[in-house]
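Hey, weird one. I pasted the CopG family transcriptional regulator sequence into the form twice and got a warning about non-standard characters only the second time. First submission, copied straight from the form history:
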Amino acid sequence: MGHDTLARFGVTDEQLDAWEEDASRGVFPGEPRGEIVIGRPRLTDEPLRAVTVTLPQSMVEAIDRQTKNRSDFIRKAVAACL
């Protein structure tokens, strides 16, 4: 990484090397700070169902200009209409 690692990330190359060595041996210092959750956080407590919609290309392009996540955008639009 070079000599700017400390300035950019607040750690030295030597610290990174030591952490890598520990991790490769399965040594992780410190204590867990909470439950380890694998995967994305759930959106709701009830079961989810996938719903596919087909939209005109121009509508998809308009959505893409408004957001980085189509699913969230469409989910919010549907919720606003219900």
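That's the output from the first submission. The warning seems to come from a hidden character in my clipboard, not from the data itself. Residues 5-81 form one domain.
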